[in-house]
Write a structure and sequence with these properties.
31% strand, 20% helix, single chain, elongated, alpha/beta, five-stranded mixed beta barrel, 415 residues
């Protein structure tokens, strides 16, 4: 007889509180931290930085003009009446011109051009009148105005970027401003995606009685791609233990992470828990969350070196477990800094009647007064995909039955 998929005294964490499940996920992710690779700047976008970036150059590297206009010595503006300066040359952005201005002189200058010797201020072109080589100052600038000082943005030795940062376009540009052509990043995990169940049929095919269209694959592939991952979708797995084992072993040898949807509870056709107990090492099965309680995390052992994260089959459960647990796992494997926690006030009251931590669907908005608010969707069933499509956040309701009055502050998870 095969081992029971729901033992009375399991040797692994079973039916654990959500916080405990997150701690297990974090520990497993740390054990499976991915290696560092060096990528060109053009390929590094969206990756997690593996090493701090320290400035070796001041930014800007030299004093330069913030405006098109004329560079001058502000002492020439100290007297009474109209000031007229002699134009003695020009300095464009690029190599520094071999010129030094003396008192009573100025230099035509463009934005980004080096400030010439003898100058300390720039007057905007619009605030002058030019007549031959004579420049009349119509609106005197303040001392040092429109001059960007060397090192005012960063000094050599400053920590510019930190390990664990996600490389946004601005961060990549900051690295480029230091002359870096490459960055050390954490390799992204490779991910295989399976949907399971004899009832599933592909969109576009004729639907027979008892069948449903496979929506989980598209949802999960989209969620993964939104994280910059490049998942590989496998054919739907039938409810056959031998075929499931063969397919998972094939993926487990080739990928860092294998994600499955469905077949993970305790029904007669839920073969994954028994298979992974027998041929792998279960790290977690069942979490006190709603939806998504049957979630299972295992190492493959004889199924290969991959991690196996098995999500429930209901589509809203897939959404919630990926955002709450799956994304946390791949973040940890890449050593990403924790994502910011976002909060909002409930637009109306809500009654929570059960003990599990819950993820409701809701719509997030900002009032005219700048207050972040969220309105729960009353269709809270884990099969109600229209409610998920009509929403843009998950609302986190803490463990324990309780009343949430209107204006209660809750955590929200955008998607």
């Amino acid at each position: 007889m095969p081992e029971s998929p729901h033992p009375d005294t399991p040797s692994f964490p079973y039916r654990v509180p959500f916080d405990e499940a997150c701690a297990i996920i974090d520990a497993v992710a740390a054990e499976r931290a991915l290696e560092v690779q060096t990528l060109s700047l053009s390929r590094a976008h969206g990756h997690v930085l593996a090493r701090d970036v320290v400035a070796t150059l001041p930014q800007p590297p030299f004093d330069n003009s913030a405006m098109d206009g004329f560079a001058l010595d502000h002492h020439d503006l100290a007297g009474e009446g109209t000031v007229v300066l002699q134009l003695v040359g020009e300095q464009f952005a690029g190599p520094r011109a071999d010129v030094r201005i003396a008192r009573g002189q100025c230099l035509r200058i463009t934005t980004g051009a080096p400030i010439p010797e003898g100058a300390n201020t720039v007057v905007m072109k619009e605030n002058t009148r030019l007549d031959g080589d004579r420049v009349e100052i119509l609106v005197p600038p303040r001392p040092g105005q429109h001059v960007r000082r060397a090192g005012e943005d960063a000094q050599a030795g400053d920590h510019l970027l930190h390990a664990g940062d996600v490389l946004t376009p601005s961060r990549v540009a900051l690295a480029a401003s230091q002359g870096l052509a490459q960055l050390e990043v954490v390799r992204r995990p490779t991910v295989a995606v399976f949907a399971t169940g004899d009832e599933l049929i592909e969109p576009g095919m004729p639907l027979q009685p008892g069948q449903i269209y496979n929506s989980n694959r598209e949802q999960l592939m989209g969620l993964l791609r939104a994280e910059g991952l490049e998942p590989v979708a496998f054919p739907t797995l039938p409810d056959d233990p031998a075929q499931i084992a063969s397919a998972l072993r094939h993926a487990g040898e080739a990928f860092d992470l294998v994600l499955t949807c469905g077949g993970v509870s305790a029904g007669e056709k839920d073969h994954l828990p028994e298979l992974l107990q027998r041929r792998g090492r279960v790290r977690l099965w069942k979490t006190m969350m709603k939806p998504g309680m049957p979630l299972l995390l295992a190492e493959g052992d004889t199924l290969g070196p991959a991690l196996f994260l098995c999500l429930p089959g209901n589509p809203v459960s897939v959404l919630a477990t990926w955002l709450a647990v799956g994304r946390r796992l791949v973040d940890g494997m890449q050593r990403r800094v924790p994502r910011p926690v976002r909060r909002a006030r409930l637009r109306g009251a809500w009654t929570k009647q059960h003990e599990r931590l819950e993820f409701l669907r809701g719509r997030w908005s900002i009032d005219e007064d700048g207050v972040s608010r969220v309105e729960p969707n009353p269709a809270d069933g884990s099969h109600r995909m229209q409610a998920a499509a009509d929403s843009d956040v998950l609302i986190v309701l803490e463990a324990g039955a309780r009343e949430y009055p209107a204006d209660s502050v809750v955590e929200v998870v955008p998607y």
